[in-house]
Amino acid sequence: MSKSFMGVRLRRLREERGMSQSAAARAIGLSASYYNQLENDERPLTVPVLVKVSAVFGVDVQVFSEEEEARLIADMREALSSAVPEASIASAELRQLASSMPALGRALVTMHRRLRETVDRADAMADRLGDAHHVVSSLPRMPFEEVRDFFAARHNHVEELDTAAEQLFVEARLRIGDVATGLAARLTERHRVHIEEAPDVPSPQRRYEPRTRRLLLAGHLSPGQRAFQMATQLAFLEFGGSIQGLVDETSFSSDEARSLARIGLGNYFAGALIMPYGLVLEAAESLRYDIDLLRQRFGVGFEVTCHRLSTLQRANARGVPFFFIRVDRAGNISKRQSATNFHFSRVGGTCPLWNVYEAFAQPGRILRQLAQMPDGRTYLWIARTVSHGSGGYAAPEKTFAIALGCDVRHAERLVYSKGLALDDPSAPTPIGAGCKVCERTACPQRAFPPIGRKLVVDENERHLAPYSVA
C-alpha cells in the first residue's frame, strides 16, 4: 500500500477516541497541517505514517488494507445485485463507499446476510411442506429462474412445439442421422437464408443477420451441433408466432425473462425437430433407454439426448419420467428439468453424496447409483461428464456433469439397471435434497446444520457427523 487515501477512516478513528486533530497530530508526530491534509485526502496515507497511526490508535493495519477494501466491495456488489437485480451501480461508487464509509458498507452487507438467512428459513419451510415450485422468498426471482419455473410447471413438455416439430420433420423430408442437410435446404429454399461458416475464432456458435439473411455457424461444431443450431434458427423464422404466443400467455416480470423464455422454447423446438417424439420414444423403448445407442442413431450429443428423454411426457404416449440436471465442478446447477415433481432444493445446494459429483473424478464414464431420499423414495441415477470447447490449443473449454434419474419403479425399463440390487433395501445410498433442508441427522458429509433445528453442542463429545441436533 504505497499510496492510499483513507481520510474518512482516519477521522472516524480519531473521533471515536475523542481526540482533536491537533492532539492526534502530536501523538503521531506530524504537523497539524500535514494531519489535516491526511483527513481531507489531500495527502496519501503512506506506510511509515500508517505504522504510527496503528500504534497510536491501537488498531490493526488491516483496517487500512486494500485487500480488505476489495473484499468489502465484492460483498456489497453481491448484496445489491441479489436484492435489487435491476440496479446498475458503478464500480467507482462501490469503491468510494468502501473507502470512505466502510462501516456503512459492512452494515449493508450484514443486513443482506440476515435477510438471506430469513429467506432461507422461509424457503426451507416451504420445501419441508412439499411445495417444490412455490417461492416464499421476498427477494425477486432472477429471469432465468422464472423461465426454469415455466418449464417446470409444464413438466418439461411443450406439446404444441412437439407436434409442430413432428409435422415439419415429415413435410421437410428430414432423415434421421442427416437432419442437417434437410434443414439447410429448408432454410435456403423457404426462407432464403444463406448459411456460411463463421470466419472468426472464437465466434458465436450461431449468429443470424436479419438484414442480409445470413446464418453464420462456427466451424468447430459437430454435424449434430450444426443441425441443432439450424433447427433453432428455423424455429424463430417459421414458428416465431407460436413461440411468442406461449410466452405471452405467461406472466413473466421482465423483457429479459421473456427473451430467455423465447430462447428456451426455440431450443426445445430444435431438440424436438432433430429427435421427433414418436421416433425417439419408439427407439428409446426398444433400446431400453441406452443413451449411447440413441445418440449414435440420431447423430446428437450425450447432453441433448438426455435432455430430450426428459421431455417425453405426451398424454397418450409417455416415456420414462426422468429428472435432468447439469452441474459444474463447484456444484452450481445450470440446468434442471423434471418430468415429475422431483424435489430440487432451492436452499443451500444439492447433496454431495449424489453421483453427479463423482462423475468429475471419472470423466467420460457413465456412473450408476441407487439413491434414497429421506422420505423413503428410491431413484436410479446415471451421470457422466460432458465437455464443450471451440477447439485449438489453449482454447477455453467448459465441463459439466449430466445426471438423468427416475423413480426405481421404472428402473427395469432401463439398460442401466442391469446387475443392480433393485429389491435390496440396503443397496441405495442415502441422499437428501440439500444440507440445509435434509432431515438426516447422522450424515457425516453434512456441510450445514438443518435450518430450524436446535443444535446440541457438547464439548465432551465428538461424533463423525459434524452437527448434532435435538
TrEMBL record:
Origin, by domain of life?
Bacteria
Q: Which SMART domains match?
A: HTH_XRE
Q: Does this entry carry the keyword rRNA-binding?
A: no
- Pfam (any one): HTH_3
The answer, when asked if Transcription is one of the entry's keywords, is yes
Show where the HTH cro/C1-type domain sits: 10-64
Task: Spell out the InterPro entries in the cross-references.
Answer: Cro/C1-type_HTH (IPR001387), HTH_RamB (IPR026281), IrrE_HExxH (IPR010359), Lambda_DNA-bd_dom_sf (IPR010982), ScfR_C (IPR018653), TransReg_Diox_bact_type (IPR050807)
Residues spanning the membrane = none
Q: Which UniProt keywords apply?
A: DNA-binding, Transcription, Transcription regulation
Q: Which family does it belong to?
A: Belongs to the short-chain fatty acyl-CoA assimilation regulator (ScfR) family.
Q: What is this protein called?
A: Short-chain fatty acyl-CoA regulator family protein
Which organism does this sequence originate in?
Pendulispora rubella
Q: What is the lineage of its organism?
A: Bacteria, Pseudomonadati, Myxococcota, Myxococcia, Myxococcales
